[in-house]
Amino acid sequence: GAVVSQHPSRVICKSGTSVKIECRSLDFQATTMFWYRQFPKKSLMLMATSNEGSKATYEQGVEKDKFLINHASLTLSTLTVTSAHPEDSSFYICSARDLGQYYEQYFGPGTRLTVT
Amino acid sequence: SQQGEEDPQALSIQEGENATMNCSYKTSINNLQWYRQNSGRGLVHLILIRSNEREKHSGRLRVTLDTSKKSSSLLITASRAADTASYFCATWRVDDKIIFGKGTRLHILP
Predict the structure, then answer these.
(1) Residue B61 CB partners (closer than 8 Å, separation 6+)
(2) Chain A interface includes B97 (CB < 8 A)
(3) Beta-bridge partner residues of A80
(4) Residue B29: is its pLDDT beyond 70?
(5) Which of B21, B91, B96 to mutate to test the interface with A (most CBs of A within 10 A)?
(6) Is the Cβ–Cβ distance between B88 and B37 less than 8 Å?
(7) What parts of chain A have a pLDDT lower than 50?
(8) Which long-range contacts (CB under 8 A, 24 or more apart) does B58-63 make?
(9) To pair with A96 at 20 to 30 A between CA atoms, which of A29, A49, A75, A88?
């Protein structure tokens, strides 16, 4: 089956620094990728939709200047958490939609961000 | 915003018993999916049921969908310790984005 990878799987950063998370579709092309955030024992909340070649669209309440998204190619989207604070600590999961199979959407393994 | 509401929020059963989780949603859907997530890990897609289907089976999993009641159920038969995980239903919002329910944490007791 299709594979979506995320890097890094875990990251610890100091408050005030920025951290970048990569999401790659390994064996298919994805014009659309999605970023979700999950707090402990909670559900996944959609943060934003990443569109290749255009600006990301953000869900209501998500700060676009805080969570920068770049979808540079059909296989790579990045999420940069800028000026991270402890409350940004969370599990971030990306998802990619297969260009050729519209209803197929694959999820990455997630990235655990801890801000100290 | 979240679309689905699962119940129960948490469920503990003995190994070998059947586990049933329910999901209700608010808007019209094209399909509904169930996912499993082991603690601190990514999602595993379990099954997709389309809006014109009423029931679907996959191994020990049985999913039902009642569009008139806007609800779905996931039944896991003959549960195993490895089934311990969180289970989420997910639906496609009108703008074709996948939205997750709150999830059910299932714990299988030895």
Answers:
(1) B34, B46, B47, B74, B75, B76, B77
(2) yes
(3) A20, A68
(4) yes
(5) B96
(6) yes
(7) none
(8) B61/B34, B63/B32, B63/B34
(9) A88
Interface of B with A in 25-84 (CB under 8 A): 31, 35, 40-43, 45, 48
Instruction: Provide the token pair at B105.
Output: 């944490």
Give Cβ neighbours of residue A113 (< 8 Å, ≥ 6 apart).
A11, A13, A19, A21, A81, A84, A88, A89, A90, A91, A92
Kindly state the tokens that stand for B51: 């809006």
CA B45 to each of CA A18, A88, A107: distance values in angstroms, whole numbers, following the listed order: 32, 27, 9
> Any CB–CB contact under 8 A between B11 and chain A?
no
CB contact (8 A) between residue A110 and residue B42 = yes
pLDDT at B1: 44
